[in-house]
Amino acid sequence: MRHRPRELGKAALAKARSSELRSSLSPPEATLWQHLRGSRLEGLKFRRQAPIGPYFADFLCPRAQLVIEIDGRWHDVLHDARRDEFLRERGFTVLRISAEDVRTRRGEVLAVISRTANERIESLERRTE
Question: Alpha-carbon distance 103 to 98, whole Å?
Fold first, then answer.
């Protein structure tokens, strides 16, 4: 049973890192979160800085298995591609949105998120029937 404390240690580290990331949202992430938190977008439940494997999703709608990533000017395209592949292999859809779009086209961004989440939910529910 020696491996059990190590696993708990990893979970505790992920939780601490997630908490740290939540306290340091970028301005576009904070703006978007104001519209997503508390099921404000059509009753859809979102979490922010949710750990998924070795990665942290900016926003996650668990019911839709939808990950939303806000991309600033500078990001590692190769890292993003590996991360997206990892998430897709686990059944998630990744929606990448530019920080600039969050700032200047917020209504359109929210509409895309809502439409994508609802389409995913419908698709997932059809699979289980």
Answer: 9
